[in-house]
Amino acid sequence: MNLGTERISKLLWQLSIPAILGMLSSAIFNIVDRIYVGRISSYALTAVGITMPVQIIQMAFILLVGVGSSSFISIKLGEGKKDEAEDILFLALKYIVIFLIAFAVLFMVFLDPILSVLTISDKVLPYAKEYIVIIIVGSIIGIPGYCLNNSLRSIGKAGVSMKIIVITSVMNIILDPIFIFVFRMGIAGAAIATVISQTTLTVYVIYAFIKRKDFAINLKLRKVKGELGLLGKSLKLGMPSFYIQILAAAVNLFINRSLLRFGTDLDIAAITIMSSIYSFYHMIVIGIVQGNNSICGYNWGAKQYARVRRSLELALLYSFLISVFLFIIILVFPQLLVSIFTDDKGLIEMTSSGIRYYLCMLPIIGPLTVSSQYFQVVGKTRLSSILAFLRYGIVIVPAILILAPRLGINGIYISNAMSDGITGAVASIYIILELISLKRMDVDLVVNRK
User: How far apart are CA 162 and CA 167, in angstroms?
Assistant: First the structure.
């Protein structure tokens, strides 16, 4: 595949389909985890949901380095600067390991205060503590591969990325019941299975970047000139994703506290199930986003703005159609979907009712995600950050404060939908203006060449 010459419609699917399959495998990885955990106890499922803010904050640093470096690599390859692209790849691995070690050390030092802030009940605390300690400490060796996996897609190797994610997801699905039920390790077994699968992915991705000669760039231990400058530019491109995750962690914590205030531990279990169903859909959209980002990043660097515009238009269309289709499925079969995670009839009824409010704006989330990530990959981080702040704080928090006291738990679900709807409307304005701008830039470029 040639990111600069291949027909866009063909190229987008060639990059997106492997990414979608890979991301779906990752979603199934998490969903199966929660299915097995739900069979341990509803409180074990609550433990996974209530410790999510910690994992989201950790993911913020992964995306800060991973998304930023992969976007920067695409741009440098488009500019024909292979050596700088390899420098960025090496720095991505170096600094994600540093960040993960620092995060794990701080987490263990302040473990009890952190768990206290999460307001975990006595019934849930044993499950939560056992699970999150293994996940965070194990991530030091498990997560670096996920960071570099973004770079596989940025060099057009979405198929390699898909293959390893599928393999490690299947591994997790097999290991989960063995550790949880055969070895009788409970929720700790689920965490250990996850870490082993993640570590396998890390080893493979690093090995591939070192040994594969068909890769546009390779991973090399090297002294990098202007290290801080390259790192700073990479982190700038990844900053919107970082903001999103930090805001998401704060909002997740606020939502969990609101759920406990107006409901019970089981309401957190319910929203954990809803989030799992949403993640399955979201990973499909992210697959399209990753294909589009690789094309747009490369062609932006090469100043082929007509190709950027065409890829963006198709990504917006495809993400919208998929969003509508999956929304209909969730709307028609909520109980069937929820029953996959639990056999608790009360929890099934509670979740099936709430999900219609929680995800009622699903059709516009696809185009919103494409828009936000596009602005990030072409270096317009301010616009991406504005959309992040709108969706993960500015709208949802005031909405919950107003609606939850009046409508209870449903007020929290409706607030999430309002946040998606308002942010989607703002994103539509920005992206229409961007499409117009890209057309003008392409015309100007043609005129200047003449």
Answer: 9
Closest CA to 385 of 353, 433, 426, 349: 426
pLDDT over threshold 90, residue 49: no
Q: At what angle do helices 362-377 and 227-262 cross, to 10 degrees?
A: 160
Q: Which amino acid is at 29?
A: F
Q: Which residue has the tokens 């929820």?
A: 338
Q: What is the pTM of this model?
A: 0.75
- The interaxial angle of helices 396-407 and 227-262, nearest 10 deg, is 10
Q: What is the pLDDT of residue 80?
A: 87
- Inside any domain, residue 1: no
Answer yes or no: is 2 within a domain: no
Confidence grade of residue 450 (pLDDT, cut at 50, 70, 90): low
Range of the domain at 353: 8-449
Here the tokens at position 432 are: 């229409």
When divided into structural domains, the chain yields a total of 1
376-395 CB burial, b ≥16 within 10 A, e <16: bbbbebebbbbbbbbbbbbb
CB–CB of 385/240 below 8 Å? Answer: yes
- Provide the 10 A C-beta neighbour count for residue 323: 23
Q: Answer whether 400's CB lies under 8 Å from 411's CB.
A: yes
Buried b / exposed e over 16-49, threshold 16 CB at 10 Å, is bbbbbbbbbbbbbbbbbbbbbbbbbbbbbbbbbb
- Most confidently predicted of 147-161, 238-252, 426-440: 426-440
User: What burial letters (b/e) apply to 186-207, b meaning 16+ CB within 10 Å?
Assistant: bbbbbbbbbbbbbbbbbbbbee
**Cβ neighbourhood burial of 224 (10 Å; 0-12, 13-18, 19+):** middle
Decide: 100 and 140 in contact? Cβ < 8 Å.
yes
